[in-house]
Structures are given as structure tokens and as C-alpha cells.
Amino acid sequence: MNTFSSIHLARSRHTPLRSEPSRLILESLPPEQGIYIPKIVSKPLKKGQGFKFGVFGGIHGDEEAGTLAIQELIQWAAEKPEELHDYELHFFPICNPTGRNLGIRYNQNGLDLNREFWSGSIEPEIIYLESELRREQYDGIIALHADDDSDGCYGFVRGALLSEHLLEPALKAASDELPRNVLPIIDGFLASQGIIKEGYNGILSAPPEQQVKPLEIVFETPALAPMYQQVNATVVAVKTILAEYRQLQAYAPNL
């Protein structure tokens, strides 16, 4: 069964996916201005007792690897829920549906949506995603991208200090599929072993007023690499981030 087939066909507020209706659901609102952004939620085994993460892909319409990786992660959540028993994962596989349909980076209005957050944008995609970010107050935010100027994987970290300590093992795990970008300057920013601590204004991120700052990671694959390698590297990176976060939370009381 193709997971995205059920995503595209479903339009109810809570639509069960596969055999775990209480743990994997599609949340959808009536499309605004003809734009439909799917959100798939994997619930923890015990209600209200899971680390809440948002995983976002396709904010640039021509970066397919993140969208395909999220499709695989959704399938993983459906088929092996026991591996995610202590997580509540919110998957947003297609954050820029008009750009994806047109095969371009920008949305249908010619705007780079990843420069529009928290600036009073009236773009419907931004209004919806900002409302979700405000409402959910995530513990962690993972945004998936691809860079056609990079020869290897790298990432940006923001927010909680844990971010850097989670990105490092994720890049290491991903290197089984694709090399790490180790240049001292990546995308115009100072980098150390593929980790950048600065970033652009207006990117998808936690609300400025959120009091408990989440960890925030942007994971980038080299867009010119074979798609299957980009997808595999992204999937293993996200799984590593989740596993490492769980371990760090377990150690925290003893620190």
C-alpha cells in the first residue's frame, strides 16, 4: 500500500492509516485557497506521555528527498509502533504543495517560504504552519532539505544546546550513505564538521514567544546525489536524532 495514496485521498479530520488507528492518524482541515498540507500524527503508546516532535519536508517544492523520507518514516511508524512508543511525531511531508506541483523552489506566488516565518506573512502555507507550531509547542523540530551546491550532508542547529549533540551522530550515521560536507564555510556560513550554528532569518522554526525552546535541526542532503541515497541518509539521520534524544533524556536526571 502506498502511504501517500491514502494521504491524497483522505479529507476527514481524523482518518486512520493502516492497522493502528489509535496511533497513526491523518489530521486535515478544509483546504485554504486550494492549498492542502497533510499532517500525519503518530501517537505514543501512553496518551500524553511522549516527546513531541514535528518533522517537516518539502518547504522548497523542488526538494523531493525530504518528502520521500517522511513517507518512509510514516511507514516505519505504522509498521513498528513499538519502536516509537515514547514519541508523538507530527509529520508534514509536503509544506509547499504548489511549489511541488510546479517543480520549483518557491510557492505559486514566487516566494521562498523558508524566509517568510514570523514576519507577518500572509501566505496561506505560512499562516497554517505558524498556527501549528504555536498550537503544538514541539519539544523538537526537524526540517529536511536538499542543497544542490553541496557535495555532502550537513545541518543547522538552533534552540536547545542538545541540537548540536544530536546532529553530530546523525551526520555520522548518514555518512554510510552519503559523505559529510566538511568545508569550513557552507552556504555562506562558518561550519565545523558539517554543523552550522548560524542561519537565515525567516526559516521554519519555533514561535519566538515559546518559553521552553525546543531543539531545532535542519538536515541537508546533497541534491545532486542519487535520490535513493538522499532518502536513505535522511531516514537514518532522523531515526538517529530520535534515538539520541531518548538517551539524552534518560541521562538528564543524573546530570
From TrEMBL:
Names of the cofactor(s): Zn(2+)
Record-annotated Succinylglutamate desuccinylase/Aspartoacylase catalytic domain positions: 55-119
GO molecular-function term, one example from the UniProt record: hydrolase activity, acting on ester bonds
The UniProt record lists the keyword Oxidoreductase: no
Species annotation: Prosthecobacter fusiformis
Pfam families given in the database record: AstE_AspA_cat
The protein's name: Succinylglutamate desuccinylase/aspartoacylase family protein
Gene3D superfamilies: Zn peptidases (3.40.630.10)
Keyword annotations from UniProtKB, A to Z: Hydrolase, Metal-binding, Zinc
